[in-house]
Design goal:
Number of strands of chain B: 0
Structural class of chain B: mainly alpha
Helix content of chain A: 40-55%
Number of domains of chain A: 1
CATH superfamily of chain A: Winged helix-like DNA-binding domain superfamily/Winged helix DNA-binding domain
Mean pLDDT of chain B: 73
Strand content of chain A: 5-15%
Radius of gyration of chain B: 20 Å
Strand content of chain B: under 5%
Number of strands of chain A: 2
Low-confidence stretches of chain A: none
CATH class of chain A: Mainly Alpha
Largest interface: A-B, 20 and 24 residues
Helix content of chain B: over 70%
Number of helices of chain B: 9
Largest sheet of chain B: none
Mean pLDDT of chain A: 89
Distance between the termini of chain A: 36 Å
Oligomer: heterodimer
Distance between the termini of chain B: 11 Å
Number of domains of chain B: 2
Largest sheet of chain A: 2 strands, antiparallel
């Protein structure tokens, strides 16, 4: 049964795909999360999350052409669907609502 | 086979259907990632794949454990004793002739149990690592964990059968070694079966 809420990792992946744009496949997604999110990730964990997201209709994937530098394997490109964008916006709304009105968090950016 | 090719081969055998992911890993390796990084990624994928398979098919995993146990015990009880004791007198005479009793290495005699034990463990892994490649890793993992857990609690008590724990005594006369050797033998048997069922192809 599809879940309604995104985990923080799934949210990071969706945001990474949106930031990368057309060329979003495993390697740049992992790099984006590592560089922007400041955490090292397992590529397998990214694919497991992407499979769940695709199952829930939040992303779609297509295969590119096989390339020699990948041992003849194709890249799997991901794109966020309109349902995925809606889920990201909903997550932002929920986070913003939780953020506001907390005195300890006022006055800083990080 | 170099460690890098071995990693990709294990990925293909134990987590089939991850071609795009394997391509990503190869691309990263060629852009300077270390082999240690590759192994960490590959083990992560295999474990995640196992967990996912086990969640989806618990009954299948239980059946595999039962089948593996049944195969191992059937072999031990039906053929193991015969294999272990068929050369009793010859082995004892040979060891005595070599002076093994004088230098305190009569434990070498227990090595006769090793062959049937090895065959029993490999056989159970081979039977469980059936050609259903999609679930091979998870069912092998289930059996290996089950057997190792029993070995952990049972050793060095001779349960369920002498041949089962004797590896722990014989190699190298330190029973803890069996806790490593028995799972390795089961996994080796399973991988043998899976690899022989897999069509040959380009690995990395």
């Amino acid at each position: 049964m599809p879940r309604q809420h995104l985990t923080d990792f799934e949210l990071m992946i969706l945001l990474a795909i949106l930031r990368i744009g057309e060329d979003a496949y495993g390697v740049p997604i992992a790099r984006e999360i590592e560089e922007t999110g400041g955490r090292s990730v397992l590529v397998g964990a990214i694919y497991a999350a992407l499979d769940r997201l695709e199952e829930n209709g939040l992303v779609t994937s297509t295969y590119g052409d096989p390339t020699p530098e990948r041992g003849g394997r194709a890249k799997r490109f991901f794109k966020v669907t309109s349902k995925g964008i809606k889920a990201v916006k909903e997550a932002r709304r929920a986070f913003t609502a939780l953020w506001t009105g907390i005195p300890e968090l006022k006055g800083g950016t990080a | 086979m170099n460690p890098q090719n071995l990693a990709f081969r294990l990925l293909r055998l134990l987590a089939p259907g991850h071609d795009a992911l394997a391509g990503d890993l190869l691309e990263q390796i060629r852009s300077g990632r270390s082999e240690l990084w590759l192994w960490r990624q590959v083990i992560g994928v295999i474990v995640a794949n196992c967990v996912q398979d086990l969640r989806e098919d618990r009954i299948g995993a239980l059946k595999a454990v039962a089948l593996g146990w049944a195969a191992m015990l059937a072999f031990f009880f039906l053929a193991g004793d015969f294999l272990a004791h068929s050369g009793d007198q010859t082995v004892s005479r040979l060891l005595s002739y070599l002076g093994a009793n004088r230098v305190g290495v009569m434990w070498l005699e227990s090595l006769r149990y090793v062959a049937p034990t090895v065959i029993g463990c490999v056989l159970s892994g081979w039977i469980v690592g059936r050609p259903v490649l999609l679930y091979a890793a998870s069912v092998l993992l289930s059996l290996t964990v089950a057997v190792t857990a029993i070995a952990w609690y049972a050793a060095p008590v001779p349960v369920p059968h002498t041949l089962f724990y004797v590896v722990m005594l014989a190699l190298p006369y330190w029973w803890w070694s069996g806790l490593l050797i028995v799972p390795l033998l089961i996994v080796a048997g399973g991988l043998w079966r899976v690899a022989s069922s897999e069509p040959l192809g380009h690995i990395a």
